Amino acid sequence: MLSTPFLRAEKAEISPKGFSIKPSQDWIELPLPFQGVVVSYGKKGTLATFHITERDLDEVKSIEQLKWEDLFSPEFGSIDIRSQNVTRIAGEKAKFCIYTLKPGKFKSTMEGTLPAKYINYVLIHRGKLFSITFKDTEDGFALTYPSFLAAVRTFRFDVPKPVSSRKPV
């Protein structure tokens, strides 16, 4: 009897989110209070949070084509961008901005009486726009941002890895 080898693909394990992130134990996963948020974390003992959202793009765009005016619509007029730049997250080109909210109704609704500072990273992967938004009080931002940045550096997109093996028939 001759054996004929063949390749057998096994189902790969991937998370239902399509990505993974591994923040330190100082961050706890929060209930999902906002529509479109895939996962949220809060830093123990602080008011710092970060949310990851995902949405389909109408058309495939490059990160350079994304404009903050569109991403923050319809509230762009309420956003005060302090700095912006380009970086890489999970091997993808990403852009980010650090911002605060201008005084007014939107700021009052979003923050109440505690002024906050934000950083927003956006990147495109397989036709989807991912946004990672960090928020803390203006006073606490510099203290909690390094821990958030360490978490962002662990962000990875899931890649199915079929396992092949040779078995005799």
Which key terms come to mind for this protein?
169 residues, mainly beta, seven-stranded antiparallel β-sheet, two-stranded antiparallel sheet, 3 helices, 11 strands
Structure summary:
The chain has a single domain, classed as Mog1/PsbP, alpha/beta/alpha sandwich (Protein Transport Mog1p, Chain A, 3-Layer(aba) Sandwich). The chain contains 3 helices and 11 strands, in the order E-E-E-E-E-H-E-E-H-E-E-H-E-E. It has helices at 68-71, 105-111, 141-152; strands at 6-7, 19-20, 27-30, 37-43, 49-56, 79-89, 92-101, 116-125, 128-137, 156-157, 166-167.
Describe this structure in words.
The protein has helices spanning 68-71, 105-111, 141-152; strands at 6-7, 19-20, 27-30, 37-43, 49-56, 79-89, 92-101, 116-125, 128-137, 156-157, 166-167. It is mainly beta and 169 residues long. It has a single domain (37-158), classed as Protein Transport Mog1p, Chain A (3-Layer(aba) Sandwich), CATH 3.40.1000. The chain has a 7-stranded antiparallel beta sheet with strand order 3-4-5-9-8-7-6. A hairpin with a 2-residue loop joins strand 8 (116-125) and strand 9.
- What is the CA–CA distance across the termini? 10 Å
The H/E string reads EEEEEHEEHEEHEE
Instruction: Characterize the largest beta sheet: strand count, sense, and whether it forms a barrel.
Output: 7 strands, antiparallel
Q: Please mark out the parts with pLDDT under 50 across 5 or more consecutive residues, or reply none.
A: 1-15
CATH architectural name: 3-Layer(aba) Sandwich
Number of strands: 11
Give the overall silhouette. globular
Task: Let me know the CATH homologous superfamily.
Answer: Mog1/PsbP, alpha/beta/alpha sandwich
